[in-house]
Design goal:
The chain is mostly beta strands. The protein contains three helices and 28 strands. Strands 1-28-27-26 form a four-stranded antiparallel beta sheet, with no helix packed on it. The chain has a four-stranded antiparallel beta sheet with strand order 2-3-4-5, with no helix packed on it. A four-stranded antiparallel beta sheet has the order 6-7-8-9, with no helix packed on it.
Length: about 400
């Protein structure tokens, strides 16, 4: 906790010290406001107390809920620690992911899918190919590596990597590395997700004019059809066995950056961001996650907005009741917590207090690095990245 100077001594201070004291008081109030009704604690992974690196870029929890994985920038190791014992960390060398990588466990936890991240994430007006790798979660050995992909997903049986590149959708055997030449879709896209049962997958495509005209949300609006054909995207859900389309979501989206099925297989989440030249967008950082029924393809009424500078992380609580998404409020990064069913915000955590606390102890401020987070299995806490440390927030005390 910040300790401010006694007010009786202000008349003896120089002007710079007065300003510093005023700022200290201001940040003390910010910290106190953050603590109002909220419980949190600061965590160092492996006891790290220096500025020597490990700027954290991503978090994930193993399927057995026993291990937390921590991805870092600048080529530092991918670290792991047992749940609730961050001092007992270990690491594996996964190569030089300069701006860090999104690291997600496979269904069994045997593998992790790594996706290249950037310091400037968004490329909203054009496609940007990135690097993906599948690694062994214990040894860190690279199982498969892919360059110049727009998206990739590992099937639930951990046998196949489904990829999207400039030529379309492909299927690569994880064990052999062979791409199945008999199975492919000659249509490129920006995002892909495989359902939890492995029976279907969703792909975000640029639409044809006929596909835009067929969308109920566009109807006979010629201007909307023209803009949708030029700047919009559609999401098509395919049958995994036949590769035939099952349905197209009845909505025209902005550029889709991420598709993901919920673990309970109820929802398909679509994260999209408007074209920078699209009129009527009041904030260039604005993006959103829309929700579709994963089985029938109907759009739900809930939408989760974000003003995050980076491509935002989003997750659901272990019991499926809450939806969390990263955002930015004013100058500071935040986690917004919503009732998943109604879309109503129920809580939020603002990282502004980190601008003062622990600055003298070798900690980066929260503005350094991206905000990632993960729910912990007790349905009470989550871990948030904050520079080279973690914050454990008890959102349900």
């Amino acid at each position: 906790m910040v300790r401010s100077s006694p007010f009786s001594a202000l008349d003896r201070c120089s002007a710079p010290l007065l300003i510093a004291t005023a700022l200290a008081c201001l940040f003390t109030l910010v910290a106190a406001a953050q603590q109002n009704g909220q419980q949190y604690r600061n965590i160092t992974v492996g006891g790290q107390e220096t500025l020597s690196g490990h700027l954290i870029s991503w978090l994930d929890v193993s399927p057995d809920a026993g291990t937390v994985a921590v991805s870092a920038t600048q080529g530092f190791p991918l670290r792991f620690f047992p749940m609730d014992r961050p001092e007992e960390s270990s690491g594996i060398d996964v190569g030089n992911w300069y701006a860090g990588c999104r690291a997600r466990y496979s269904t069994s936890g045997r593998y992790m899918l790594l996706q290249q991240l950037f310091y400037l994430d968004y490329s909203p007006n054009k496609d940007r190919p990135v690097k993906y790798e599948v690694i062994d979660a214990k040894s860190g050995a690279t199982v498969r590596s892919f360059n110049d992909l727009y998206a990739a997903a590992l099937t639930p049986d951990e046998a196949t990597v489904v990829t999207v590149d400039k030529d379309g959708v492909k299927f690569t055997d994880l064990a052999t590395g062979q791409t199945d030449k008999a199975r492919s879709i000659a249509r490129t896209g920006n995002a892909i997700a495989v359902s939890g049962d492995g029976k279907r997958f969703a792909v975000a495509h640029r639409p044809t004019k006929a596909e835009v005209e067929a969308l109920p949300s566009v109807r006979n609006d010629k201007d909307a059809i023209k803009r949708g054909f030029k700047e919009g995207q559609i999401v098509v859900v395919y049958d995994m066995a036949t590769l035939q389309p099952i349905y197209t979501l009845p909505e025209l989206f902005d550029k889709v950056f991420r598709l993901e099925y919920s673990s309970d297989e109820r929802d398909l989440w679509i994260h999209a961001k408007p074209h920078t030249r699209k009129g009527g967008n009041p904030n260039p950082n604005q993006s959103y996650v829309e929700v579709a029924d994963a089985l029938f393809g109907e759009m739900r009424r809930t939408t989760f907005p974000s003003l995050a500078i980076y491509e935002p992380d989003f997750r659901t609580s272990p019991d499926g009741a809450l939806f969390a998404i990263g955002s930015t409020g004013g100058k500071f990064q935040e986690v917004h917590l919503y009732d998943r069913a109604t879309g109503k915000m129920v809580d939020r955590f603002v990282l502004s207090w980190r601008l003062w606390e622990n600055l003298g102890k070798g900690a980066f401020v929260s503005g350094d690095g991206r905000l990632s987070f993960t729910f912990l299995p007790d349905n009470k806490r989550m871990l948030l990245t904050s520079g080279n440390r973690l914050i454990e927030w008890t959102y349900a005390p």
